[in-house]
Amino acid sequence: MNTLNIDEREIDKKALVLSLIFWGLAIAWMIFIFYMSSESGAESSKRSLKIVEYIESLGIFPFMTETVIRKAAHVTEYAILTILSFNSIKYTNLISLQTSYSQTPVKIVKSDNEMYIVISFWISAVYSSIDEYH
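and the corresponding structure tokens:
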């Protein structure tokens, strides 16, 4: 049996476990982003230059620059945060078997997926703003 009754509500155990896993991963990723952005410019630049040298040694992108690497790293780290947030919200919404967002009478967006996308982008945007501030 994949459900659990709490206070006369049915809860999907698989969704609950996946929700906790994805929230844990999202929070861990936020901590990783915070740690990486707390490094000094010299440390970060040193790591970026090593990556540039490695890519140039492969001959894939002979004109790779440190700026491109740093911008690509920022885009990648926040894309990962957005994906983790999306899955966290998705499985959190699936915990209750009785009502999901798509079944509610008042809607801001049309579907559950649109809601997940909007909220996950907001989480990443707010976190990136907070991260830039510190």
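(Above: one complete record from the training split.) DSSP finds four helices and two strands in the chain.
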